[in-house]
Amino acid sequence: MHTDRISVKGMKDENDAEKVSKTLHSVWGIQQVEVSLLKGEALVSYDEKAASFVDFQQAIRDLGYEVAFSDAPFHADLK
């Protein structure tokens, strides 16, 4: 399993954070999602063979938010 921290810009309230969480959970290959409204980011654990950053980016952009890899130093391969 692979984990990335993704910056999500434009979330204004918990409803926005919940929409992002539900949308990311619907992406094939996602194992775990944690969305932080305060930090403006999502921590996403996924199977690299089934999903990629491009999949997350498109799903979040379809909701109307901006997305990028977070500047925060985090990147882990969990097995």
Automatic annotation (TrEMBL):
Q: Which UniProt keywords apply?
A: Metal-binding
Classification via InterPro entries: HMA_dom, HMA_dom_sf
Which branch of life, at top level? Bacteria
- Record-level Gene Ontology MF annotations: metal ion binding
Q: Which residues form the HMA domain?
A: 2-68
Write down what this protein is called: Copper chaperone
